[in-house]
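Convert to structure. Protein one:
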Amino acid sequence: MLEEMDLFDLMLKTLEPFFLAFIPLFVAMEPIGLIPVYASLTSKMDRHQKRSVLLHSTVTAAAITLAFLLVGRAVFLLLGITLPDFQIAGGLILLSIAIVDIVSTARFAPLAPMPGVGVVPIGTPLIAGPAALTTLLMLSELYGFTVTLIALLVNLFIVWATFLSADAIIDYIGEKGAMAASKVISLLLAAIAVMMIRRGIEGML
């Protein structure tokens, strides 16, 4: 029994950095909140067009986030930016994004099929937007490249699976339900942003 508890504690300690990286990135990418937008932008497309948009959006988001994760630390060194500097600046940006999303009442009307919609605006800036990119750089500095990369890949898979099931999810919880979930996630993003600012100030002091 004691050995099982020790093994469980070891697993928790091993997985803790992953979850600490996964959760802020999930909140920043906000796949549930993007469902109404994605469903609206693809509502007049056939099944083949939707699959094409899904592929393009996922590949675009993956390419941008991976590139940002790879060169982010080099940019830090080149510009002489410290982790506290970035935590404060990134926290302010995330807080602004969260506040705008919480108070926003904008709705997305169905649009006619558009070429390249999977790249822009779905791939970027909806999936790989300022919040996700800012969070990636912060997490890389806090938990390391490998842990952040794994958390990113898992989140990209969740985004892909969520968009693949977007129509079914909308039918089940409704557009208003998805928007309500988006507001809750934005509130969590605001809390994470405040935490980043606090840590940045503490690091400077």
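Protein two, convert as well:
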Amino acid sequence: MLELFLGFWISRTVMAAVELGVFEILDAEQAGEGLTLEEAQAALGLAARPARALLDTCVATGLLDKEDGRYRNSLLAARYLSSRSTHSLRNYVLDERWCWPAWGRLEDALRADHQLLPEDQEGYHAFPEDFFLDFLHGHSGVMGDRLAEGVDLREATRIMDVGGGSGAVSIALCTAFPHLEAIVVDQPPVAAKAAGHIAEARLSERVTTWPANIFDDALPPDCDVAVLANVLHDFSPDRAREILGRVVEALPRGGRVVILEIVPDDERRSPPLAVAFSVAMIVNTAGGDAHTVPQYRAWLEAAGLVDVVVTPIEGRMVTTVIEAVKPM
């Protein structure tokens, strides 16, 4: 029971470690064989007691290794928390750090049925401009890799990545399927960010952007697959159905919709993180939710799609691929 309700001790400590730059100063390229406590505290600008408490907690949780009095990143932290990693979740952690005041007022958010942070036009909490929707790039890259393993796109030629954010999913899919072309559809500031990531991945000839509001503007033509990766949970059922309707309308007959989402079981009993994702959506959005497979199936069929296929992907967040086809 103590571990259950005191778990925020660990999560908040990890947030502080990320914000203070622990995993950058202990990156192998920077720290060599690791840093002593004295070297680390000097680099962090901390006194001995808080530096030791912070670093040792990271050791206890498997994020740092400690040997002969020297600290270094574990493989886990080097891959997911150092900003130098292409799979870095650093910005994701920072986003949760910025949301911390809202979590501290969770009871108020639950009573209001609405997130309490400043919000954008779609009801999602607002971001600093230089960070806008870029915080999920590392996470989306991992999800894109998992999607590539869970869906067969060998016969596809051109996909629209609806609400594609940083472009990470399109990058992953086009890397896995060398013949594939992709169009990342998102708001203009987000599309501009995505173009930079696409260029860094050297995929600008095959992955392009389509700046648009997915509720109001035209969607790309001549795409045989529409991918919605971790998009629909940001919206209420009505808004999610609206998005699906516009996507289906833009697809040709025989076109396919591919949804990648965090999905709890049908009765919303497990697993804990996927069920609690509904609470996170109250903290972060005006109407988002962790929608279930029966909901997605009903929405797809109501939009006129057939041949619904559900492919669970193993993991604690229970990410699921849901596919359907527009009849010929």
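The chain has 16 helices and ten strands. The two ends are 55 Å apart (CA to CA).
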